[in-house]
Structures are given as structure tokens and as C-alpha cells.
Design goal:
The protein has helices at residues 2-6, 19-38, 57-70, 97-116, 128-131, 135-139, 143-153; strands at residues 44-47, 50-51, 75-78, 85-92. By secondary structure, it is α+β, with helices and mostly antiparallel strands. Strands 1, 2, 3 and 4 form a 4-stranded antiparallel sheet that branches. β3 and β4 (85-92) form a beta hairpin.
């Protein structure tokens, strides 16, 4: 993998890995998640998905590492960062409420910092239940349009009922 990545450092940033090396890099990236999960088989995992403009990537990575370390957590950072997208794999025993509380607090701070840097709380895997409360901060002007489109396309509320779009008044999930 290092040989393939070193090709990206050629003058001008061109002449990176060929098709076979790219395929090997993508395969390694795909398996990284499962390899990291296998390190702690008795733990439950939470994988994040955040994206910032490329010029802010070093800043958000340093911020994230400092938050993880400062909270006394163990987490792995990985991703396909060429598009500003990165993932953090948190883990803890399912019954370790103290650690899960710290994980959620760090994740919330990561999202807030990502948004402050002009990024998005949902790089590629969707909003999900955890991040829906950040939609108002990220897309305040478009939420009513999103609700209208959802109502137009799903008038009976059958698709993901109670998920994604926060309630206009409370920020909670809407039906």
C-alpha cells in the first residue's frame, strides 16, 4: 500500500497508482473497518462519517484526535481523505455507559467543529438518527423545502417514519 501511495508524491501530484494498485488500495480500505472491529470483538462500534473542505482536513483531523485523546477514548481514524471525508471508529463494551457518554460528547463536538469549518455532518452515509438534530444548523434554510418534498413524495409517511427531518419546533424527529 505504501508503494502505491508514494506514487502520489511525484512532482505535480500526478502519476499515482495504476489500476491494479488502486484496486488493492480500495480493497484495503474496505477491509480496514472489519480489521479494526476484530481487534475488540466484545465491543460495540460506532462509525462516524464527516466531510470538510480539503483545506480544513488537517485541522479537523487534529481536532478529532485531540478530542478522542482528551476524553480518554480509543478510536481509529481512517477514510478516503482526498475528498475531505473521514471516519472515526469508536468502540466500547455495550454496557459501559460512561464510555458511551464520552463517545457521544466527542462525536457531537466533532460534528459542531465540522459544520463550523464549512463541512457536512453526512459525508456519504446519510444523516441517520444521531445526526438529524444537526440538520437545522447545517441546512436551516432548506429544511422546510425538504419537509415539503418528503410530504409530496411520501404523503402517508411510510418511508422512514419519524426519522431524518427534525421537528420544526423541538428539533426532534418528525413523522
Amino acid at each position: 500500500m505504501l508503494r502505491a501511495v508514494s506514487g502520489c508524491r511525484r512532482p505535480g501530484g500526478r502519476g499515482g497508482p495504476g489500476p491494479a494498485e488502486r484496486a488493492a488500495l480500495w480493497e484495503a480500505r474496505h477491509h480496514a473497518f472489519y480489521a479494526l472491529k476484530a481487534l475488540y470483538p466484545e465491543h460495540t462500534s460506532l462509525s462516524t462519517d464527516l466531510c470538510v473542505p480539503l483545506q480544513h482536513l488537517p485541522e479537523i483531523i487534529a481536532f478529532t484526535r485531540a478530542q478522542v485523546d482528551g476524553a480518554g477514548l480509543h478510536a481509529s481514524l481512517l477514510g478516503h481523505v482526498g475528498d475531505g471525508n473521514f471516519h472515526v471508529l469508536f468502540h466500547a463494551r455495550p454496557d459501559d455507559q460512561d464510555t458511551w457518554t464520552r463517545i457521544e460528547a466527542v462525536y457531537d463536538r466533532m460534528i459542531a467543529q465540522t459544520l463550523a469549518l464549512g463541512g457536512t455532518c453526512s459525508g456519504e452515509h446519510g444523516v441517520g438518527l444521531h445526526k438529524r438534530r444537526f440538520l437545522a444548523q447545517e441546512h436551516a434554510g432548506a429544511l422546510e423545502l425538504m419537509r415539503d418534498l418528503k410530504a409530496l413524495l411520501d404523503p402517508r409517511g411510510l418511508l422512514n417514519p419519524g426519522k431524518i427531518l427534525p421537528d420544526p419546533e423541538s428539533g426532534a424527529a418528525s413523522e
